[in-house]
Amino acid sequence: MSIENFPAVNATLNAASTVFIAAGWWFIRHERKLPHIACMVSALITSTAFLTCYLIYHFNVGSVKFTAIGAVRSIYYVILLTHVVLAIVIVPMVVLTVVPALRQRFERHRRMGRWTMPVWLYVSITGVIVYFMLYKWFPSDELKMRLRSPTAASSAGGLQS
Fold this sequence. Notes:
81% helix, elongated, single chain
């Protein structure tokens, strides 16, 4: 797999996390604890895989500029800003939700989970939206050229802005 595939992999991992989080929420609302646990462990795994791939990609490529103009630019940056801030916040929230569950302190787990689930869901959904806006719906001309020619991207130093 080349570095150019990482954004699509990241979006797929975010989408999978979204499905696992939503399904886990549905299962616990219907008192199905084992499927809830399976979904939430899967969400943790896919989110961790996402974070690993995200860091590898941006370590190698740097940042990718969003070059669209007009209202869509403002919308993109609002989504991106809230996504990034909440992505930072969600890490300790997940820890503070998972640890009580592992210690069988389910009341504390439930209290924290009520806050963690919607934030985690928002982060995973907006991660997919950022991917589509940046790489599919409004890619820069430079990005389109580099993604068509992987050898040009690697010889030119990646997609750094």
